[in-house]
Amino acid sequence: MVMWRRMNKGRRAMFSSRTPMPSARDWATGASMYAGTPSVDHPGRRLPGLVAACLVPPVYPVGTRIVRMTTDDVLHDDQHVAHSTTTTRAPPPSPPKPEPPEPIRPRSSLATADPVKRETDVRSSPRSVTLSRVTSSEMISIRAAAARNNADWCASVCRSHGIPGAFGETAWWSSRRTPLYYPDAITLHHDAVPTDFLAEIDTASPGCSIKDSFATLDLTSSGFVELFNAQWIHRPAGLPASATPALRTERVSTAAQLRDWQAAWHGGDGTPDVFRPALLDDPSVVVLAVHRGEVLSGGVVLNRSTGLIGLSNLFAVNSSDVTAIWSSAIAAAAGHFPGFPLVGYEHGDDLAHAQASGFAALGALRIWLRDS
Asked: Measuring CA to CA, how many Å separate 107 from each of 53, 60, 239?
């Protein structure tokens, strides 16, 4: 069981939204762990004849006596009683007011704006995206939004360690070595190139890692090796979550709770210093513990960015609880952030569990490591 946790942890730890890149020392000593959406005046608009007749009264010659009659008079045409006998010139017809055009609505807020250039604290509920109907360019835009969400999460972890990060137009990076399992740079746009970020990060010391969010880069000439590939995943907001999840979720709110959570997340001795208490003060982050009764059975991290909720670092202490923990995590996300779609990335068995829970694969990403 411990071995399962370690192997599963290895898969989760592959620099996904759930776990970042190991240091050179870790790879040297435990590499096997980590293997693997016509009105009258407007010819273009047709109105019924009765409406048009009402809009355009007949024009009478000067001097004609115009008799106005009530509805009751019309209904009793054998008793026409004139209510006015004033002789006057007929008034000119008034043109009808044109109806305002109906606004054109985008198919998806994620598909019509570059997510890299939007602010990250939008609190309004987004429209969900039906992946079966989106174009390839829209799919790329959703992947870019997922990559930005993941970069926001990595930036939060770095801030909790006092490590600064920077967002460029096509990438996020940190000039200092990031915490264990976390990348030094993440591409945010499909046309990012190595020169956008390589000069900004520490490539001199071992352990530098890059998250190529669109699997478009070749970094071998810069001394990197391809570590593994994974898939971005997306779950629309409209999909129902379990009304009664099998396991209970509770927000981690104290340093002691976070320490126990991190030990279970790591699943072995020598728990690394990744998740620090300062992370609990970040308003965009929710760390959740999943319990069976009073026993900690697993956990997950949720992070909010523009129109999306990232789901990362999901783990199960026992393999038999994996499906229930996915269900509980999705239900908890709907409770904390109702009306928002979920994104993340997975590979291997974890990808299969995600897809069984209603997530769809968006496209590939690639992790690169420079260990010398």
From this structure: 40, 53, 18
- Contact present, 340 and 330 (Cβ < 8 Å): no
Q: What's the token pair of residue 6?
A: 């370690």
Is the CA virtual torsion 292, 296, 297, 302 positive or negative?
A: positive
Strand, coil or helix: 366 = strand
Tokens coding 332 = 């908890």
Cα angle value 248/271/184 (rounded, 5°): 100
pLDDT surpasses 60 at 106: no
Does 157 or 23 have the greater pLDDT score?
157
Local confidence band at 137 (pLDDT 50, 70, 90 cut-offs)? confident
Neighbouring CB atoms inside 10 A of 253's CB total 12
Q: What angle do CA 281, 287, 291 make, to 5 degrees?
A: 140
CA-closest candidate to residue 298, choices 32, 26, 16, 18: 18
Q: Residue type at 148?
A: R
The answer to whether residue 362 scores a pLDDT higher than 90 is yes
In one letter, which amino acid is 318? N
User: What are 26's two structure tokens?
Assistant: 């870790």
Mean pLDDT of 142-150: 96
Whole-Å CA distances, 282 to 155, 195, 250, 306: 11, 31, 17, 16
